[in-house]
Amino acid sequence: MRRLSRRKALSLVKELDAFPKVSDSYVETSASGGTVSLIAFSTMALLSLLEFFVYQDTWMKYEYEVDKDFSSKLRINVDITVAMKCHHVGADILDLAETMITSGGLQYEPVVFELTPKQREWQSSLHLIQNRLREEHALQEVLYKSLLKGAPTALPPREDVYIQPPDACRIHGDLYVNKVAGNLHITVGKPIHHPQGHAHIAAFVSHESYNFSHRIDRLCFGEEIPGIINPLDGTEKITYNNNQMYQYFITVVPTRLNTYQISADTHQFSVTERERVINHTAGSHGVSGIFFKYDTSSLMVTVSEQHMPLWQFLVRLCGIIGGIYSTTGGWSHSRIHLSQIDMLKTDSDHLLIYFKSVSSVFLITIMPFLAKKNKLFLVHSFCRATGIH
């Protein structure tokens, strides 16, 4: 009984088979079918390889939300060289709340303003990258993902000893400020703080020594990430006027960066530049110097690196293979059906000719007998039916 029930179950399962097998005796190969199969397999391999490259690639996803962190401090990383001696210039920050942040975190280092050939080559390469970034905004995603493989973006040190005495001052370091609008300025004289505000002592500096030609080797906000190029990195301004004023209007956007190489809280910023000559008689008032007026955005950007999941890659791969196989198989079968129809049409024509010849022989055989019986009308009817004239 168990064997019978098992056989019935197997027979039932066989009846439910949606993929019946075809005997090899009914399968016929052809040169055209082999060519189609070769093209199909080559296309499958090529598209599968391209799909694997897409699977290996990643993309950046941008999400925006309101920045709810108001209590933390904003870090400013500065590395600026001014074409004046260090005891003639001073740098400090005054924010919107009239809070003065002194330059205690900054260092003043006497240097030579002119770059060496190696440093000038580095600066030219940085300018080229900056120009490409302004034209192709998608390159920023490449920087996020690769981080220039950790390559340093700071100015390389001088490879030779100073031949001439230092004629410039390198101001570098970091400052922590409130997350409100502020003004980082570098001007003549050291800053001092008093109840009425703040000032710079410039009485002992001759007007002829004013020279605010400068080079920004590094200016960024937040955590400093190696390999990220900021908009003002490598900027160089040369002036021959003692009353030159440079202004940089900066909008800082908090950015949370999550990639497969690094996870950090940093800041992006956009900048607008302006420069003019101070001339009180012509109505151009102000103070000579370099001014960075920054403001923080209320939105925070989260940049995360995304990757295609494995299941999606497998589904797309199956779609490629199945689609090509079905398309080429249907086209090959349609050709076989058309050839079979042509064969059947040819066979029917041969059968009709054979039937007409047999009918003619049969008619010639029985015609004398029919003529004796006066039944010629049957002959005419038979000829009409068979198409014999």
Automatic annotation (TrEMBL):
GO cellular component labels: COPII-coated ER to Golgi transport vesicle; endoplasmic reticulum membrane; endoplasmic reticulum-Golgi intermediate compartment membrane; Golgi membrane
Highest taxon above the source species: Eukaryota
InterPro entries found in the cross-reference section: Erv, Erv_C, Erv_N
GO biological process: endoplasmic reticulum to Golgi vesicle-mediated transport; retrograde vesicle-mediated transport, Golgi to endoplasmic reticulum
Annotated Endoplasmic reticulum vesicle transporter C-terminal domain residues: 167-327
Domain Endoplasmic reticulum vesicle transporter N-terminal span(s) in chain numbering: 13-99
Family: Belongs to the ERGIC family.
Topology in the lipid bilayer: Multi-pass membrane protein
Protein name: Endoplasmic reticulum-Golgi intermediate compartment protein
Entry function: Plays a role in transport between endoplasmic reticulum and Golgi.
Location within or outside the cell: Endoplasmic reticulum membrane; Endoplasmic reticulum-Golgi intermediate compartment membrane; Golgi apparatus membrane
Keywords, in A-Z order: Endoplasmic reticulum, ER-Golgi transport, Golgi apparatus, Membrane, Transmembrane, Transmembrane helix, Transport
